[in-house]
Structures are given as C-alpha cells and as structure tokens.
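Q: What structure does this chain adopt?
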Amino acid sequence: MVDRIEFQKEDIGAEILPILTTGLYRNALDTLREYIQNSIDAKATKIELVVDPDVVSIRDDGAGMIEASARRAIRLGISEKSPLDNVGFRGIGIYSALNLCDQLVMHTRARRQKTGYMLQFEFKRMRDELLQIKGIGPETADSILLYGLEKLVFVVDRYTCRILWRHYLLDEDIDYDYVQQLFTDALPADLRIYNEYHALLVALGKNYCRPRPRCSACPLAEFTHRLEDH
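A:
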C-alpha cells in the first residue's frame, strides 16, 4: 500500500534564508553527499549508489519512515535534526537532488511496518506551486530555484526593472515574465552567469541606481538615462 503526501505552504521554513544566501550544493557530488548523509542519519549499514545516463538512484537499509516522518521530510528549510547528533541538519533534505533531475521519487517504509510511502516531486511544476503560496511572488520563487536549488532561472527584482527603465530599455508597465525572458534570450544558459549577472544588477541598484540616483559615479553614466524613479 502506498499513500500520497501533498506539499503544503507550512512545509517551507525560516531556514530557507541561509540556504538561499549560502547557495548550497554547487555540484553533483555535493548533492549525492547530502543523500548519503541522510542515509547515515537513518542508521543505514549498506548504501548503494547507481548512476545511469537517465537515472541516479540511492538505496539503503536505514530505518525508513512512518507516515509522520514522511510528512515532515517534505518540508523545505525546516529541520528537527540536531547538528550535534546528525550529519545533515539544514532542512534541505529531499530537495538537494533537484539540481540534478526534473523528477524525484522516494520510496520509504519503516521497519516492521506493512505500509510504505512514495514521495514524488515534479520540478517543472514547482515554480507554479511556490507562486500559489501566500507571500511568495515570482522573485522569491525564482530566488529559491536559482540560489537554493541551482535551477537555470533568471531572477528579476526591483533593481533590475529600475535600471532598465532608467536607461530606456523597458517600458513602465512591462510584467515580470517579459523582463525575465529578455535576459533568458540574451544570456548564455549558464548558472554562473545568471548568478553573477543578477548580483551585479543588485550591486548597481543598491550603490548607484537608487530612488535618488548617484549618476556621476555610476559605471553606466555614459549611457543615456533619465533621473526619475520607477
């Protein structure tokens, strides 16, 4: 018997902030290590890792999860593990593999239990699901995907829109998706470039292209621009 567990808004916790700012899991080895750490925390004595062209799978003989544990496992940025007793404790858990795959499936069954559970995550739907959570808009959702899960999504913020508008590259009422598509079309599909480009725009907006601009010292001062705020 397999029960389905749905992701809810309560499953995102405050620890998502340090996760986003530190940019965890820079490569595939970091991601696989997180899973192995979770297996160790589950007291596994055997861990099997198989890497095929289309599928990466990890199997262990750890304790497995009952329903309540499986329900807690899908939470993002919420962890009940102690950093003193457990290797993995940041609350990223299951989501650490999303920088490797479009779909994640996890099967678990606690020892001496007849009922098992399947946790399935469809990355392509994740952004829409995040946007449905009250208080999370496109910028926050894309920040989670880019910095937390290392998915190739360009983040658009108020600094970006202000800079483009002041330099006559953007009309006043253009929406988020349109601005995002401008950068997606213009930039190489490279995670490092997306990160760096967004960081440079934020620095420019904070230091120079403020609501009260500091145009004389701005690196873009030689380009035609307007002084009004947007």
